[in-house]
Write a structure and sequence with these properties.
It is a single chain. By secondary structure, the chain is of the alpha+beta class. The chain folds into two domains: about 120 residues, Alpha-Beta Plaits (2-Layer Sandwich), CATH 3.30.70.360; about 80 residues, DNA polymerase, domain 1, CATH 1.10.150.900. The protein contains ten helices and six strands. The strands form three sheets. Strands 1-2 form a two-stranded antiparallel ribbon. The longest helix has 18 residues. The chain is globular, with a radius of gyration of 21 Å.
Length: about 230
């Protein structure tokens, strides 16, 4: 049953099958695409492939950046049923568990995901056999790249002799909406240095990143005070 649901949400060759979400998606906007060259230069596909040990990417070039950064996605975090340990076990599993996470983009809300998932399960005739439990739920967040706070963050790199990049949206997940959509204040994720393999084994940040960040924060505060 869960395998059928998974196949309705994600195809290993064509990617997410979320037409019921795509209908509401508004990104990438023309303004988002203004910064596409920044995305390409700051995050080469080749580096991602090497760092995470990816044998092959489904998309390449511009299409890869557009889908990863500006489109909704679904990830099957885990799928478990029955006995998978050593030895032989001839059993019939009593239950199966699948954990999913969805990444939202502007104009797509958590209730859209839950309703679409419910309709998918219903269409497959599995409503009476499948239970859906929501563990965490928060929505998308976005700050205008031309906001004065973003401009200040960019200027703060100048004394460090570094070229900053503008990444309109991140494919990660965090409750940033509490700032942008609840409090109504901009949020900028910024800072010099180098790290990698986020949430993966051997996640790291280089030692020289810490003093750079400390100096950058002081420069950023000065820029914000000037505005």
């Amino acid at each position: 049953m869960l395998a059928r649901i998974a196949s309705e949400l994600l195809d290993p060759l064509t990617g997410p099958r979320l037409s019921w979400l795509e209908e509401k998606v508004v990104t990438p906007t023309p303004e988002d695409l203004e910064y596409l060259s920044d995305l390409v230069e700051s995050l080469p596909i080749e580096r991602v492939v090497e760092e995470y040990g990816i044998s092959k990417t489904r998309l390449t070039g511009r299409d890869w950046y557009v889908e990863v950064f500006f489109k909704p996605s679904v990830n099957i975090d885990g799928l478990y049923s029955g006995y998978v340990g050593p030895g032989t076990k001839t059993i019939t599993p009593a239950e199966a568990v699948m954990r999913l996470d969805f990444r939202l983009v502007p104009n797509v809300e958590p209730e859209d995901v839950l309703e679409g998932l419910r309709r998918t399960i219903e269409r497959l005739g599995l409503s009476e056999l499948v239970e859906v439990h929501v563990h965490d739920c928060y929505t998308w967040s976005k700050t205008d790249p031309k906001h004065p706070a973003v401009r200040a963050a960019l200027r703060a790199y100048s004394p460090l002799g570094l070229r900053p990049y503008v990444i309109p949206m991140s494919p990660g997940a965090a409750p940033s909406y509490l700032f942008t959509r609840v409090l109504g204040v901009p949020m900028v994720s910024t800072g010099p240095g180098h790290g990698g393999r986020a949430h993966a084994p051997n996640e790291y940040v280089t030692l020289d990143t810490i003093p750079k960040l400390t100096l950058y924060v002081a420069l950023l505060l000065a820029e914000l005070a000037g505005d």
